[in-house]
């Protein structure tokens, strides 16, 4: 076997000796031996073509015709080459065509470097390998070489002959002919080419040519070829065109040198990106700003939608118009330095009151003037004369700005007449406006004075150190004296209590504390009443309340005065009780205390009525907001929840259900299973008293491992699904990245943009998978079906929406990385020569010799992948911003419309990859199956949406809730806790909104309770308003899509379930409670044995319709399956004076009438927010044998997060496990 391939030694070194034969120019002549002159630009004509200026130049003015090419060939036949030696002309040394953006390079130096890159042997090694004699010293290489050249070469190689490289050594030994080394290499190469190639024409054994044909081929010379293919006269060429001998036609004029030829063009560096930097940067910034633009648009849309919602809400409410008094004077109030003035209206009322109204005519401030009181009026004397300062003793000043001196004069005249009419002193003075502003005591300054007032007030009451009372300014002595001498007005007193000045409670308390009757509270007067509430005994506090409401000061408290007292307490809860309910409470309290025959109570009777609540009175305070000492005097009152009985069957009536919260110890304390209090109605329930096993204290690492174990147990399905999905995405990324980095066909793209191609191709595969299979998370009908199968044990179908959001966020991150990869690609392609791009993209580019690539904007905006990519970024920016939680709450319609851009998204994705610029289209591989499944699911929904459903009943409930009852479609089967989507074409839109069914599966009709929270629901409430007159109501029809399943329908799969509803989030539990009672009444066998329903509401009037459902549940719940706990968050949790009295009334009502004062239900009513963690801990002890407890919450995000946090904290322990499900739309 003989290898005919080209050896590296021949390719890189031996053939380079031809470079020594290249002259600096090339002659051109015609057949008449006339050598032509060659023009070069504007420099004139020259005897020959300059080699360095003619490399690879396709457009050469001297070679623009076939005749010119013939003249070039004739000139080359007459021209004698340079000597085969070590000398290379400068055209090859410094002016060889350079790579890429460099126009010039050194041919010999490049060949030497190429030999190094290919690992060629050294000059000495090559000689020994070929069996040639090796020189012993530098002069032995070639005796004809100039000694100075040898010395210079030896110096370059440190005088070490063994380091001499192959190409320099071969050139040094050549003189007139190739030296021994190059001759041997060339001979070896041509012998192997001839003898190793079976298709060589002289090889008679291959049967390709006959002997005559072989002889003809051997006799054919380059002279024959030139004569055959050109128009050259045969007599103008010598027979051997490669050699010119004496006697040959047309000798050259002279041997060419650089003299007389044009100079070589200097090195130039082509900057393909020149001028594109700013545009490229602006384009990238613009693409990055797409989300910001979308955010700005969404903000504008949300603003107008909010305005529309407010307008609709305002339209739906009964507007109470307020008219300003005839003597009202408009002005601008100056609130203080660095604050903006605002418009007000000043009223001088007949009862010596000065009232300040805002632009909506709401009362901002009221000043009650006393007879013979002195009022100081200071007018500005500056040019314009439009400012005045009104100083009233013991009040902060009022600084007014008028439009003109005339308007100010009108007000001054009204004020003077007012003071004369009511015998008030008025002192008028003038000063400059700047001095007037400095003299004014604004509300801000008054607030700092009152801060010191309250600090010292509490410091004296609670014996607080001065350091604990807070820091005082440097001039503290003067500030303290000023604060202690100031007196509180009625408005400031009411503000300190967090109440309104006109409240009856404020009137009574202020009148009691104002001992001198001057209409203001001094430091001592406030201190006296505060001491009673902070340190007084229950008897002192009850006596103080007795005195407060003994309006006629006769030493007795009549029923009317008692009613007035209770009415003042009810005011803080927005009059949550009617007068009839309150009268019933008063009569009940009198009757229970044995005073039903009395019309008046002594203080002893009044205290006897409250003696069962000594503990509440002991903790009762007067909660004041001032002073900045907040936590110093706040008592340590823990959260209170009702104790839960162990088994439902231990009680026969609701009186035995639970003790009041005041009689229940704090959960988690040592007295968890012990009750305290003076009295208890009925026998105590049997408590769970089994001893808890002592557990060994574990170390920090063990605790963390246990928490991790419980976390994995809680979310194992979620973790597995996320891990599998992430692994698939990561695998697709790795496969594509590896393929283009190491396994793809050699196209040169990986070598050109390694990072960009790996990043863009890897993310493209992951994004294609994510955007395809995200469709499955929105197949609601399929999910509803699958969650009833065995797959629900392994796949968390209830978290489909959360998974949808997670995939979307991961996909957008990968889309950003994909775009970043293509930005890198575009930059590299924009600075790469056209010859390289033609190799990488042969179907797109043609190498025309210009070397100029396309600009960056061509890649972005003039290619199908680039333009669709920009549009995809725009679509994604719009969809993601409008789908954010913040915007979705403000404009569901905007979210609905923009999310339908997903159709355009998938169209663009298909087009984006169809161009096949880098790879063949692959998106359809991932998209086809999910698209078919999603299409089928949508067809199922569309088949239902075509059916119109008649509304049977529409009712407008309080708190903006609309109750719709409509026909149940034929074959419509659902479970309690499921939800539907409805549309109403009468609203002028086809958008569907999700709502939970409040009807039970056994009912003949379907019902929804919809709260007016946005424009769509507000308009829905308007369109279903009852008609005016006696006409029969004809309601618009609805379109229904559903039902759809979610976690709440699994309440029956747990032995113990906890339902937590807040706000309108109670709707799924209305259906569940009705379904539970219905099934229990039929004697159906259910796994669920106990349900705890926690209803969190701001006020009991907010969702009164639910109270009716709970009342129905209480009446039909014969097996004591449901335990209801209602938390009214509007009322304070603190034991202040007002809440304590309401608390006492509530517990009295439960004890006597077996129902709540606020709701009318037998369920326990609590004040404040539910303490979920202690509540869940008590469930673990009450139900110790239950391994899992289901928790189902629906409501505001804050409440749901608190429930989730409590479940996570409880699940860290090795006790009953809480499984939390929450509502998602």
Automatic annotation (TrEMBL):
CDD domains: EFh, NOX_Duox_like_FAD_NADP. One of its GO terms (molecular function) is calcium ion binding. The chain crosses the membrane at residues 280-304, 715-734, 754-776, 856-883, 895-917. Its EC number is 1.6.3.1. It comes from the Eukaryota. It is found in: Apical cell membrane. Residues 313-332 are annotated as: Disordered. Pathway: Hormone biosynthesis; thyroid hormone biosynthesis. It is an enzyme of class 1 (oxidoreductase). InterPro entries: EF-hand-dom_pair, EF_Hand_1_Ca_BS, EF_hand_dom, FAD-bd_8, FAD-bd_FR_type, Fe3_Rdtase_TM_dom, Fe_red_NAD-bd_6, FNR_nucleotide-bd. GO terms for cellular component: apical plasma membrane; NADPH oxidase complex. One of its GO terms (biological process) is hydrogen peroxide catabolic process. Its main location: membrane. Residues 501-536, 537-572 form the EF-hand domain. Residues 315-325 have a biased composition (Basic and acidic residues). It catalyses: NADH + O2 + H(+) = H2O2 + NAD(+); NADPH + O2 + H(+) = H2O2 + NADP(+). It is a multi-pass membrane protein. Generates hydrogen peroxide which is required for the activity of thyroid peroxidase/TPO and lactoperoxidase/LPO. Plays a role in thyroid hormones synthesis and lactoperoxidase-mediated antimicrobial defense at the surface of mucosa. May have its own peroxidase activity through its N-terminal peroxidase-like domain. In the N-terminal section; belongs to the peroxidase family. PANTHER family: DUAL OXIDASE 2, NADPH OXIDASE. This is NAD(P)H oxidase (H2O2-forming). It comes from Leptonychotes weddellii.
């Amino acid at each position: 076997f003989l290898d005919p391939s080209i050896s590296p030694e021949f390719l890189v070194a031996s053939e380079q000796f031809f470079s020594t034969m290249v002259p600096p120019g090339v002659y051109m002549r015609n057949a008449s031996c006339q050598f032509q002159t060659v023009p070069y630009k504007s420099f004139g004509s020259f005897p020959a073509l300059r080699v360095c200026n003619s490399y690879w130049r396709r457009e050469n003015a001297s070679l623009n015709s076939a005749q010119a090419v013939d003249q070039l060939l004739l000139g080359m036949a007459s021209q004698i080459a340079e000597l085969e030696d070590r000398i290379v002309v400068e055209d090859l040394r410094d002016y060889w065509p350079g790579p890429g953006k460099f126009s010039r390079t050194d041919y010999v130096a490049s060949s030497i470097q190429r030999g190094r890159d290919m690992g060629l042997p050294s000059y000495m090694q090559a000689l020994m390998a070929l069996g040639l004699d090796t020189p012993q010293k530098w002069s032995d290489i070639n005796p004809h070489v100039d000694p100075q050249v040898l010395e210079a070469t030896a110096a370059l190689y440190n005088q070490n002959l063994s380091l001499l490289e192959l190409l320099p050594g071969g050139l040094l030994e050549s003189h007139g002919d190739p030296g021994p080394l190059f001759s041997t290499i060339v001979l070896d190469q041509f012998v192997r080419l001839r003898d190793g190639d079976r298709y060589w024409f002289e090889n008679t054994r291959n049967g390709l040519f006959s002997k005559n044909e072989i002889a003809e081929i051997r006799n054919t010379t380059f002279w024959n070829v030139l004569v055959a293919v050109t128009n050259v006269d045969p007599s103008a060429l010598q027979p051997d065109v490669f050699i010119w001998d004496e006697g040959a036609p047309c000798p050259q004029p002279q041997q060419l040198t650089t003299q007389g030829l044009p100079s070589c063009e200097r090195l130039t560096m082509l900057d393909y990106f020149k001028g594109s930097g700013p545009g490229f940067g602006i384009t990238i910034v613009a693409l990055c700003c797409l989300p910001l633009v979308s955010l700005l648009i969404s903000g504008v849309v949300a603003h107008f939608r909010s305005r529309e919602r407010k307008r609709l809400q305002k339209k739906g409410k009964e507007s109470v118009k307020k008219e300003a008094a005839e003597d009202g004077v408009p002005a601008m109030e100056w609130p203080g330095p660095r604050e903006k003035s605002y418009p007000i209206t000043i009223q001088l009322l007949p009862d010596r009151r000065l009232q300040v109204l805002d632009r909506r005519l709401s009362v901002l401030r009221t000043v009650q003037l006393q007879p013979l009181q002195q009022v100081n009026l200071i007018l500005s004397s500056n040019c314009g004369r439009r400012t005045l300062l009104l100083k009233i003793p013991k009040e902060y000043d009022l600084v007014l700005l008028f439009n003109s001196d005339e308007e100010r004069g009108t007000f001054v005249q009204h004020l003077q007449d007012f003071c004369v009419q009511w015998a008030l002193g008025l002192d008028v003075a003038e000063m400059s406006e700047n001095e007037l502003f400095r003299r004014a005591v604004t509300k801000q300054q008054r607030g700092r004075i009152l801060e010191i007032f309250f600090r010292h007030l509490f410091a004296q009451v609670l014996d607080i150190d001065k350091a604990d009372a807070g820091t005082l300014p440097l001039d503290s002595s003067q500030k303290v004296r000023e604060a202690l001498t100031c007196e509180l007005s009625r408005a400031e007193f009411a503000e300190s209590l967090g109440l309104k000045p006109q409240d009856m409670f404020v009137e009574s308390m202020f009148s009691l504390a104002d001992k001198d009757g001057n209409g203001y509270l001094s430091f001592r007067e406030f201190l006296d009443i505060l001491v009673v509430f902070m340190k007084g005994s229950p008897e002192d506090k009850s006596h103080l309340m007795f005195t407060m409401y003994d309006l006629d000061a006769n030493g007795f408290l009549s029923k009317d005065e008692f009613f007035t007292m209770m009415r003042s307490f009810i005011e803080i809860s927005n009059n949550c009780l009617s007068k009839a309910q309150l009268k019933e409470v008063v009569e009940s309290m009198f009757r229970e205390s044995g005073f039903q025959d009395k019309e008046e109570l002594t203080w002893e009777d009044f205290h006897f009525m409250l003696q069962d609540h000594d503990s509440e009175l002991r903790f009762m305070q007067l909660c004041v907001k001032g002073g900045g000492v907040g936590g110093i005097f706040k008592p340590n009152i823990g959260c209170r929840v009702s104790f839960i009985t162990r088994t439902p069957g231990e009680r026969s009536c609701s009186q035995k259900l639970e003790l009041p919260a005041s009689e229940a110890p704090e959960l988690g304390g040592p007295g968890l299973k012990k009750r305290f209090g003076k009295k208890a109605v009925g026998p105590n329930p049997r408590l769970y008293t089994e001893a808890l096993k002592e557990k060994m204290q574990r170390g920090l690492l063990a605790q963390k491992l246990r928490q991790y174990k419980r976390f994995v147990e809680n979310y194992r399905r979620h973790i597995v699904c996320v891990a599998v999905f992430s692994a698939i995405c990561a695998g697709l990324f790795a496969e594509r990245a590896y393929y283009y980095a190491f396994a793809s066909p050699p196209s040169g793209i990986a070598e050109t943009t390694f990072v960009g191609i790996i990043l863009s191709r890897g993310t493209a595969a992951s994004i294609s998978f994510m955007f395809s299979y995200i469709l499955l998370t929105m197949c609601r009908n399929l999910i509803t079906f699958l969650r009833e199968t065995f797959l629900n044990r392994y796949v968390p179908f209830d978290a489909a929406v959360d998974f949808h959001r997670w995939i979307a966020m991961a996909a957008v991150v990968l889309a950003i990385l994909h775009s970043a990869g293509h930005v890198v690609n575009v930059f590299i392609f924009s600075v790469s020569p056209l010859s390289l791009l033609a190799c990488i993209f042969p179907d797109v580019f043609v190498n025309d010799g210009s070397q100029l690539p396309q600009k960056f904007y061509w890649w972005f905006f003039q290619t199908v992948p680039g333009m669709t990519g920009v549009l995809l970024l725009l679509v994604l920016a719009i969809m993601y911003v409008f789908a954010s939680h913040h915007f979705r709450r403000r404009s569901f319609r905007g979210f609905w419309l923009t999310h339908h851009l997903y159709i355009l998204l998938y169209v663009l994705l298909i087009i984006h990859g169809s161009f096949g610029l880098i790879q063949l289209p692959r998106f359809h591989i991932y998209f086809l199956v999910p698209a078919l499944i999603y299409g089928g699911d949508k067809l199922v929904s569309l088949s239902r949406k075509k059916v119109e459903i008649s509304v049977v009943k529409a009712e407008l409930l309080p708190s903006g809730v609309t109750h719709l009852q409509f026909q149940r479609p034929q074959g419509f089967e659902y479970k309690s806790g499921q939800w539907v989507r409805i549309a109403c074409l009468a609203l002028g839109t086809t958008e569907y909104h999700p709502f939970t069914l409040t009807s039970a599966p056994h009912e003949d009709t379907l019902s929804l309770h919809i709260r007016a929270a946005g424009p769509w629901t507000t308009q829905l409430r308007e369109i279903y308003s009852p008609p005016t007159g006696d006409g029969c109501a004809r309601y618009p029809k609805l379109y229904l899509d559903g039902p759809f399943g979610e976690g709440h329908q699994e309440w029956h799969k747990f032995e113990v379930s906890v339902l937590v509803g807040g706000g309108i989030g109670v709707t799924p539990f209305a259906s569940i409670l009705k379904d539970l009672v219905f099934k229990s009444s039929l004697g159906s066998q259910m796994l669920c044995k106990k349900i705890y329903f926690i209803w969190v509401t701001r006020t009991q009037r907010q969702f009164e319709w639910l109270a009716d459902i709970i009342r129905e549940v209480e009446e039909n719940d014969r097996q004591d399956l449901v335990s209801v706990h209602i938390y009214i968050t509007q009322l304070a949790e603190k034991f202040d004076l007002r809440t304590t009295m309401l608390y006492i009334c509530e517990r009295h009502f439960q004890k006597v009438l077996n129902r709540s004062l606020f709701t009318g239900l037998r369920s326990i009513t609590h004040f404040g927010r539910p303490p979920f963690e202690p509540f869940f801990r008590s469930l673990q002890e009450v139900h110790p044998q239950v391994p899992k407890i289901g928790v189902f919450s629906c409501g505001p995000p804050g409440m749901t997060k608190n429930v989730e946090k409590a479940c996570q904290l409880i699940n860290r322990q090795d006790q009953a496990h809480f499984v939390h499900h929450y509502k998602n739309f």
